[in-house]
Design a protein that fits this description.
The complex is a heterodimer of chains A (164) and B (288). Chain A is an all-alpha fold and 164 residues long. Helix content of chain A is 74%, strand content 0%. Chain A contains seven helices and no strands. The C terminus of chain B is likely disordered. The chains are: A mainly alpha (164), B alpha+beta (288). Chains A and B meet through α1, α4 and α5 of A and α1 and α2 of B.
Amino acid sequence: MTRARGSLGIRWLAAVSLLLAMMLRILPLPSSLATFNPDWVLLFLISWVLSTPGHIGLATAWIVGLFTDVLTARTLGQHALAYTAVIYVCQRIQPRLRFYPLVQQSLLVALLLSVSRFLVFWTQNGRGPEITDNAYWLPIVSGLLAWPLVQNSLDLLRRRFGAH
Amino acid sequence: MLVLAACVLLVAERKGLAVPFRSALTSLVYPVQQAVSVPTRLVSSAREAFSSYADLFAENQRLRDEELILKTRLMKFATLEQENIRLRGLLETSFKVGEQMQIAEVLSVNLFPFEQVLVVNKGARFGAHVSQPVFGATGVVGQIVRVSPVSAEVLLITDSNHGIPVQVNRNGLRTVAVGTGQLDQLALPYLSGSADIQPGDLLVTSGMGGIFPPGYPVATVTDIAAQGSPFAKVVATPVARLDRLREVLLVWSKADPVPRVPEPPSAALGGAMHTEASAANSHDTRTR
């Protein structure tokens, strides 16, 4: 019974944290900082998959991706596709990735971020004249730096809500 | 399977099939966008609330002066407009004058760093539609690319995917101003090296393309390089302050051209009113 209650709390926590991530994603930063704004939504999703693989699945990733598409005015399905692919890979390597030291983990997460970024870039390019700026890839670097922060703070919250 | 679904969506959207689905989703995320833009709005309203009496008085005074000047100018404008219509009537050409406008508030959200897209808080419920022109107080801002019932996405004229047909106000030279991706720059790539254009020239909308009504200021020419080569490299700065927009005007062009013989004013007023927008609210301002 306690397990059921805990699981409900965790679901709420996941929903609220993903909402927060979406808000961070469209935060009105000055344009010099905005190019550094990492893909918070994907970072949060990966963090959830790593720690509580049962709660966040491919369907959630797809729906969250769809919302991100609408939120950032992309063609519908760009982020949905990218997030689903990344989360699939993430689920496959989760048992190993979870116990990696933080530095190694961050590097792999950066790799996942760049896969997603590339998928968005690639689906974008079908649409018209496009981003050719190298700054497009900067959020991967900032994502790499933000990962320990995201993972640790979410872990702290999850422990408080009794996940493990 | 989900990947397949995403691919299907991508194709569907490109073919324009997913519009109702998209607008429903956009309405769903609208609260998130609102929530993000609340802090910025709070700060500015707090600044207004705590500004001193003297400041407000000074601002009020300034606005009064400005209003007086504008009204005087407008007085002349009305006669000029009538004269213009009459003369065009003599020349047997019809001409569209007068647009209907509505104020929309800009939500301070940052959608995507490499695109210049604004979100405004008026959507299809207020009669906004795709490819509707959007103006600021001083000049052209952009056009609507997507609408949902409660909000709309505005592509700025400086986005690198945007081009706007303009003409030089001084001599009527027509060209296209394309966005550069920087908020303070437009480029005019289709001008020959010998074109009659100089720094300081005002570019106004030419009305070609049928999206933007003619005669509204777009940008001023700031820099011309490589005169004498086959193509001139002309750079212009938008007249509207695109980096600090808080309110914009959605514009409805009047569908029917002004008749050659001016109608009595009451009939003209009734016929010209845009039906959807007139149902909207008291923000309507008509310029004629």
